[in-house]
Target: AAA family ATPase
Amino acid sequence: MIKQDVQVPGAVVLLMGRSFSGKSTVADELAQALDARVLGYDAINAERGLRGGDGIPVEDWLRTNTVAHSRAAVLLDADLTVVVDDTSSPRFLRDEWRQLATDSRARFVLVFIDVATEVIQERLLANRGDAARHDVIDSVMADHLDAFDPPTSDEAHLHFDDTVHINTVVAAVRAALSQ
Model:
């Protein structure tokens, strides 16, 4: 657990990575460390009666994206920091978050949690054993892994794998937000 010591006002910290990469864990730790609010697409989908692991039509994902942006705009207007917990793929989603940050005169940091497919599969199977979160059915996971759109060289981002300690992620995000 990271001790909260400084509020970082008016920022969007956009997490990205494939399902079961650890984004939600990172989001919770960053939110505590930065005194930020988490906007999780899974939580918004659940409010809407949707489960991503079963497959959600594109129109419904876009509606969830709209809800997340609306909530973020309110928080940014209050000069609060938002940690967005989503796969953030494809790229147009990341571009929309960058634009919202720009329009809100907020700082923006993209954090890519890059975990090997083998580790993701192990986590998925382990989850099925204890149901810590909803399952992602095999066909949905296969489509997700095939279609995932990682950041490109022209996208400024912080890049971490599953071996990095959360303190390193927090320090890097803080540093990026202070620039």
Summary: The chain has one domain: 11-178. The first helix runs from residue 23 to 34. The two ends are 25 Å apart (CA to CA). The CA atoms of residues 30 and 170 lie 6 Å apart.
